[in-house]
Amino acid sequence: MSSTILNKVPVPTRWRLAIKTLPFITVIIFLKFCVHSYGYEFLTLNSLFTAIISANIFLIGFLISGTLVDYKESEKLPGDLSSSLEAMADEGIIIWKNKKSQESKDYLLKISQFNKALIDWFYKKEHTDTLMEKLRSFNEDFLAFENQTQANFIVRMKQEQNSIRKMINRIHTIRETSFLGTGYAIAEIITFILVIGLIFIKMDPFYESIFFISFVSFILIYMIYFIKDLDNPFGYTEEDSLVENVSLKPLLDSQKRLETYYQEK
Q: Is 83 helix (H, G, I), strand (E, B) or coil?
């Protein structure tokens, strides 16, 4: 019952990773108390141990810099997708104003529906293959426009279609693959070993050792979570439970505009 209530309590986004890390810190502090109480602290703090901590922080910094490049690129993709879809819609509006054809009206409806399918795809309610097939189906509309518009208009629509296809493939790659999985593994192994070492290290006075162990463990574990979160900027579903996601506002705004374009016809 209590866990259900906690799950319903809204947590500010910026604190979710910290709260996710706290249970590990609680366990580490408990183990440190047990080890200290039974006199199992057989390690001593030396320069080699601090050097390993520095090396691990350097490795984590390297992983963050690598994932940050993909994240900064990913921030642009929803806006670029929105721009390409509305550019395709502009050509359809021009054809409608010129020919008042049913094909152009159906085309605008299809773009609005595709924008909605694209948003669903980000939330994993739509498969990539299905989305690609819907994108490919615009070829039928371009064929219907051959007698209604100039060839260069259709070429522009095809170019935007190809740009959308490239961006979908790029997003799919970022979402489904990890940056340097072996790098994550070694960072996790070193962090685990360091935490175990901190538990068995003897430091006096004891309350200072609790402070330093808690602080160092929190930083290391938090940064591991942060890297994994940053590695997939498109984790919008509950099963992903990620925090640092890029905004889909450009696509949500374009959805409203595209629906307006169609309703005005």
A: helix
Question: Which long-range CB contacts under 8 A does 43-49 form with residues at least 24 apart?
Answer: 43/197, 43/200, 43/201, 43/202, 44/201, 44/202, 45/201, 45/202, 45/203, 49/197, 49/201
Residue-wise pLDDT tens digits, 32-53? 999 998 888 888 888 888 888 8
Segments of the chain with pLDDT less than 50: 1-10
Half-sphere exposure for 155 (CA within 13 Å, toward CB): 3
Which letter does DSSP use for residue 14 in this model? G
What is the rounded distance in angstroms from the CA atom of residue 34 to the CA atom of residue 44?
A: 17
Residue 6 exposure: Cα atoms within 13 Å on the Cβ side: 6
Cβ-in-10-Å burial (0-12, 13-18, 19+) of 247 comes to: exposed
Q: Please name every residue paired with 190 in a beta bridge, in sequence order, or none if there are none.
A: none
- Cα–Cα distance, 34 to 32 (Å, whole number): 5
* Global confidence as pTM: 0.79
Give the end-to-end CA distance of the chain in Å, rounded to a whole number. 53
DSSP state of 201: E
Are 27 and 35 a contacting pair, CB within 8 Å?
no
The DSSP code for 204 is S
**What is the rounded CA–CA span in Å between residue 95 and residue 103?**
9
- Tally of residues, the chain: 265
- Containing 202, the helix (H) or strand (E) segment is strand 201-202
- Residues 59, 63, 65: CA angle, nearest 5 degrees: 115
